[in-house]
Design brief:
The chain is 3% helix and 47% strand. By secondary structure, it is mostly beta strands. A hairpin with a 5-residue loop joins strand 7 (69-73) and strand 8 (79-84). The longest helix is centred in the C-terminal third of the chain and has 4 residues, at 106-109.
Length: 130
């Protein structure tokens, strides 16, 4: 039992920034050690954006957001953030946070895929206008 709740979405112009938050009620008892962000643009498939391994802070990103987005974990380790800078219209999507359990080196080597996550939030909308 538990939940992931996203917040921070909104509408911005191209070049602007947004910071998404995901509050998690999952604990160590749930075996969660990876938190991630996905997005689904209108009419397109869901895609992975970023992930963080809570054990050592290792992160990974989709090529499309490298250098622009940053995933991080709050001091209480129950919140994950996605700082999005230099936003582009193609970043428009519903953004979802997810939680799962993976091997200690997975995130350092690659971006985890959707089937590797156990839990999902309800999503928050991000719209970037030109």
């Amino acid at each position: 039992q538990g939940q992931l709740v996203e917040s921070g979405g909104g509408s911005v112009q191209a070049g602007g920034s947004l910071r998404l938050s995901c509050a998690s009620t999952y604990t160590d008892l749930d075996g969660v050690n990876v938190l991630g962000w996905f997005r689904q643009p209108p009419g397109k498939p869901r895609e992975g954006v970023a992930a963080i391994y809570t054990g050592d802070g290792s992160t990974n990103y989709a090529d499309s957001v490298k250098g622009r987005f940053t995933i991080s974990q709050g001091n209480d380790k129950n919140t994950v953030y996605l700082q999005m800078n230099s936003l582009k219209p193609e970043d428009t999507a519903t953004y979802y946070c997810a939680a799962g359990y993976l091997g200690s080196t997975v995130v350092a080597r690659r971006l985890p895929q959707a089937p590797e996550y156990k839990f999902w939030g309800q999503g928050t909308q991000v719209t970037v206008s030109s």
